[in-house]
Description:
Layout: H1 2-8, E1 14-16, H2 20-25, E2 38-41, E3 44-45, H3 55-68, H4 86-100, H5 118-122, E4 136-141, E5 145-151, H6 171-187, E6 196-208, E7 217-228, E8 231-240, E9 243-256
Parallel strand pairs: 1-2
Antiparallel strand pairs: 2-3, 4-5, 5-7, 6-9, 7-8, 8-9
Amino acid sequence: xxxxxxELARARTFGFVHEVDALRAKGLIRxxxxxxxxxVGDEGVVExxxxxxxxxxxxxxxxxxxxxxxxxxxxxxxxxxTRPSHRGTVLLxxxxxxxxxxxxxxxxxxxxFRIMDVEDIxxxxxxxxxxxxxxxxxxxxxxxxxxxxxxxxINEPFFQGHFPGHPIMPGVLIIEAMAQVGGMLLLGxxxxxxxxxxxxxxLNNVKWRRxxxxxxxxxxxxxxLQVRNMMCKMQGVAKVDGEIVAEAEMGAxxxxx
Length: 257
């Protein structure tokens, strides 16, 4: 984890000047700037400098790590790539899962275990960039339990001011991300969740145990404590590498949008 944080997580995304307008026209790179990304022009890097001579290579390696996470399980392998692409790595992950299906229980087919990517999440939650703080749902047992993850990268917009030279994820945003995962738990138990919204009504016994930094993957685990009509109480924890970094009890209600 320490090597990932120091050697890969700080490697910024990159692109060329002539690509910027086209990407923005598609609604992409909205939070990008020459300070949190590397932009290359005819005469080199624009308004910035590389953190390492091979920063481009390091970022591509980080892309591979992120794409391999789509396997939904820890990948124990030595991976060597040449000119990797998102599409190529995703195809590799699909091939790995296909090869392993006869030796591993397919958890995605059970009622109590679902894997949802960010596109599925956006069909349920109303949040959008830069305030959608859930990347993936690993487990969802509607009305009972949910497990979700948030990958924390140096490109998060809040790191520009919190804090320059010492990036730490704001504690309130950790709790917000936990609440969004909890929202998936509640909305997963109602028909037509797209017509509903979750309002959080209370927070109790909130604790932060250690800072969350770029390169960390936040794992949120929430369990329902009590349900009454359209109101609910949940207990949630946030973990990094198996260590609890934050916890809270949450009260919430479901209402029409």
